[in-house]
Amino acid sequence: MTKQVFEYLEEKASQVIDTSLLPLDCLKNLNELSGAVDVLVKCGYLTDKESINKAFDILEQVTTFADNSLPKN
Description:
Blueprint: H1 2-18, H2 23-42, H3 49-69
């Protein structure tokens, strides 16, 4: 199960990166990734510290990428 969870998170992360030139799509995908991590932790799908840290690392890396890629006004 954990392998499938991380495959999903990595696919969502790829979607964020792939849509980085389309701000609204990028933010939509980033929101979905963030929500998925939140639900996985709160519902107990990710319980060990290593898995939780890995999920938040994926989210942090993609958030940083998106922040650097999205246009600033």
